[in-house]
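Hi R.,

Here's the chain you asked about this morning:
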Amino acid sequence: MVSVATKASSDEIHLLVGALTNIDQAVLLVDGQHRIAYTNPQFCGLFKLPPALVRPGSTTRRLHRYLAEAGEYGDGDRDELVRQRESVIESRSRYRLERLRPNGMYVEVVGNPVAGFGYVFTFTDVTERKLRQLDLEAAVQERTEELRRANRELARLANLDPLLGIINRRAFMQIAEEKCRAARASGQPLAVLMVDLDHFKSINDRFGHAGGDLVLGAAARAMQEVIGADDVLARHGGEEFVILLSNSTVESAVATAEALRRAIAGIELDLAGRCARITSSVGVSTVASSEPTVSVAIVRADMAVYSAKAAGRDRVICLPA
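And here is the predicted structure, written out as tokens:
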């Protein structure tokens, strides 16, 4: 009975060793005293280890020291690197990590406790899988950044007038309210200008909408050349523009408004062989520190525009706060 059982056990061990010799993974089996019990040929081949280092009975500490000095565990204090590897066996817990070897190979290390014995580690070359994963992650990151850029561009375009390339009314109100809050905190004066192109309907009637668009563009460019870098110009709607002047008193706002009026009056466009000229009515108002929003100043400036038109157009009217 004993001989039959012994033969069966020997056959099982032979089959097991044969299987471990022919699998893709490298295998390291250690006992509870941190001694090597078994390694398959793949383990020595993977790390190019001298056979004496992994002979049954050799200590895992000696093996880990060799691998640490070979750079397999990365940078750091070698004693600490060895201690970390030894502590895995002592923990009796499952273990898994992927690491990049000095030769560029990615290896997956999996450790499992063996009941009543010790610990078994398997080492698998996962370089191909890891490189595919890294390529995929890079592609996802690139695509994500492309989407972010596209979203930023969409947000930018949503804030622009598609014809003139200056900001639209909605974006102006957001910027103006932010500047208004900052100005109240710093005590800086602000002013609002409303600019309405005179008799613009006649421009469209004479030169068509394409001609009217050219006039609008010329007027916008003329105003951009007059206002300062901290001022904000927007299309308010139709042939009407709104401007927020930073750090501007009533006197300086009126002076800027007059400069805008003269710049627009100086525009001469050749449209289909005919000269197109235009004037503007400009309303000026200041933003009172007591006003919660810039909207009240915009209403006053708009009222001033109507007063300028009623007075004969091509002029500046101021209705301060």
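One quick note: The chain is about 50% helix and 20% strand.

Cheers,
M.
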